[in-house]
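Handout, section 3.2

Students often ask what a structure token actually looks like in practice. Rather than define it abstractly, here is a full record for Coenzyme Q-binding protein COQ10 START domain-containing protein. The first block is the sequence as you would receive it.
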Amino acid sequence: MFTRIRRSQIESVRSFFNFAAKSQSQTYQISKILNGPPSQLFQIVSQVDNYKLFVPFVEDSYILSRDSQGFPSNAGLKVGWKDITEKFDCELDCIENVKVSAKSIELELFEFLETEWIFRNVEGSSNEDQCKIDFKLNYKFKNPIYDKLSFMFAPQVTEIMIGAFEKRLKQMKRDEMMSKFKNRQAKL
């Protein structure tokens, strides 16, 4: 028995496997309100060396150099997923409690990779313990296979990563509350 396949169906399947095609840049943006002040979110994002402790797919994270204020200016990550593992270094620009941006300087994997986190107080909110984050990820792989894989999974991975930072924030707030509670108990 034969099934008739229209030409358009074949082309759409073939285009996915056309690995000779050039990679295309991809951009993902997320804005979200989190329960924490900008200073705390800035601290979590700028401490790149801790990413290995809470960010999925990050197997190692390290700081190579710091600026005059002590913020990281060069850092790196080793990321992995299934059998794919890559390591790359980035140049960072940190503006305390306002912004953390990173740009890949090791370009074996990417033609370019840029991330930007912007932290703002929530306008009109009486709760000073809230922060609006604007996260932007912009990249282009050199390898078209990675490009195709990333196109399918990047939106979900971006959400997972933002969730990891949010979870880290909640953990820090719990730790702060426990510390305050223990201090009060010790004084009694």
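Discussion prompt for tutorial groups: Residues 1-19 have pLDDT under 50 and may be disordered. How would you have guessed this from the sequence alone?
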